[in-house]
Structures
1.
Amino acid sequence: MPGISHEAPLELLRRNPPLAMALLDGLGVAVPAGATATITSADETASVPAELRADAVILLTGRTGQLAVVVEVQLRYDLDKLYTWPAYIILARLAHRCPAVLLVICADAATARRCRSPIAVGHPGFQLKPLVIDSATMPDPAGPGKGQTGPELTVLAVLTGALDLNQDSVRRQVLASLAGLDEDRRKIYTVFILTAASPQAQDALEELMTTTEFHHPFVDRLLAEGEAKGLAEGEAKGLAEGEAKGEAKGQAKGEAQMILRILAARGLQPPAAIRERVLACTDTSQLETWGDRAATANTIEDVFGD
């Protein structure tokens, strides 16, 4: 099941769909004039064997037309996206009969850098360049026209690392952005913030939330029950255990198989010895290097040569 780190950005969009417009605006992407934003079905399944389901699809409707925004949250790079992301865009365009864009939200710069790589689908001139939100491209939550989505932008800035919760001024800024929210949103956003915080920042945030400036009855209950910090610690522990015991191994196996699929799709057949080498490899950095090469290489030697 997806964890808080993956679901938090999507929940921000579900609770306030105009957040998609603020993110696109920050990337310099034009949206329909006077657009309103609504969450629509993320099921992109067509009459093909595989099920295709994006993380979220938001439909922007304005005076000048519509724009479908396919949203994907990437905690790590996935070679399979070279094939599914172009399909998401085409199917969203087909389903809504309007232009479509791909918006990828990344929690770290390394994943964002790889996700920005253009995807050549094969047809001349047909190349998908994902729009990527990370710490470097997050819009300023306090920027002009961001009032409607300011709280969500602030929380997303924390999740992507654009705001450093280890700084007292940032902690105060983040908590102040939640002041005007209803209790339900304030509660879930607090959980998201504490999930992303370091243990030291968690303690400082909880201390700050008990002061007069940020005091609120729901905070008393939240801290007394240990709900927010407990969820944050549980998420961190679960991720750490999963990565230590099996997640890394599963990721390596998946990347190895994808490399072989990419090579086969491009008409490159590695000898048995190389296939065994790829499938036996557990070094994800090495697999990522081979995967990058496989996407553009003309020969097997271009991929596996030193």
2.
Amino acid sequence: MQLIDAQTAESYLRDTGQLAETENVRIEALSGGVSNCVLYVHRDESHGPDFVLKQAREQLQVEAAWFCSPERGLQEVSVLEVCQGFLGDSIGDSPSAGLGIHVPEILFQDKSNFAYAMTAAPRDHVVWKSELLQFQCEPAIAACCGDLLSLLHAKSWQHEAVRERLANRQFFMDLRIDPYYRYLLRSHEDLGPSIELLVTSLAENACTLVHGDYSPKNLLVHKQGVMLVDFEVGHFGDPAFDVGFFLSHLVLKAIWSEDRCESYWELIRVFWETYWAGMERGAPRMDRVALERRAILNCAACLLARVDGKSPVEYLTSEVHRQHVRKVARRLLLETPGTWSDVVSLIQVYR
């Protein structure tokens, strides 16, 4: 595999015919992830719009040893193509927020080098995670995120063609289950039965496309709406994982924000209500009670993984905050409450 980085990308793009001979470009390495080389290619408008070039890497950039086959780049393209087919040109399709919800379009794929290029988000975009860490908690964005996730889940619900195309769960196991869930047993051995039941439930309740990394760092906010990126963990699985994974990020920020936590609780409420409204429209036979309970369990495991897993969250630097997360997550895993309101109440007890 030819390694592509900010220094070699221009020659790679010229050698593969993706740039005109006379075209000048500026290439910038994008940060925020640990598993890929992601490059932003700035072009002269006369030659075409900017685009993003991405290549999967075998070793992830974290302190603990963590490896995953770069073949996940092929899976990522498949997931993105499925999502693109569901969304298409969906500007203005968020019924709750009146904002656009969309995903990138694939421009080309290089299977031999596990690389592909996709359209870039508008230049005025910001990563939603950065806004949340500046206490900018806009409920309309949470509603937009709920609409987007419910649309992907509802359109793929019990979709046999999607089930067949995205049946490979190996990358999900390598990048989520083992480093997040099972890695926890090194320091929380007593949670073994709860974790294994949770892992089993993810396979037993496979009924939709699952993004697998639905988080604020992968939601790019711009004037027209929200773009979702990073599909390498996608597969056909349990939608409860996406819901729990996403909400774990808002819970972490609520704990981190201390006295400003109410704004994050409101985001949780808006997201869940919007998401479920979308599921009622698109997949009315989905069992809300069962989905909510499984989502809470996944949220709990993800919370614990972000302090004691292979990829701890970088902004939770206070040991007081980390202990808060541990107490809440363990309690949720051992005594699963029924609703998100119960989760919020429990978290507030430990403040």
3.
Amino acid sequence: MQHASLSPFLTIATHIPSGGRFPGDSYVGPRLCAECHSGEYALFSRSGQALTMRMATERRLSDQLAGRTVADPERPDVRWTYAKQKGEFLIERQEARKIERFVVDYALGSGHHATTFVTVLDLDPPKILEHRLTYYTREGPVVL
């Protein structure tokens, strides 16, 4: 596999910590809410909304895509390759001889219907890259 670095516009300066939170965050999380609102918590934790944003490596789809290369449905000269290495989910975009690599931070969507992967580019101010392909459960990759 040919190696290339990210373009200057796609450099990740800071990684999001495991679980998506930094020390000192004031957000208490849903488990604390469950102490007083157990019924609501039980309903929410089983809902698609509760699964809408997860670490990309936690999604079964990342395991299914790892090791695969797919053609872009609208750009036949572009190939997307997926990998899992050292606990990270990676996407490589190849067009002609240009290769860009991304560490995928999050998967958006419950996974019941669709999943779109995103990469955090910067935290201050927050910037993310939404990857071009969305995976629909029954259809495979679709460009949105």
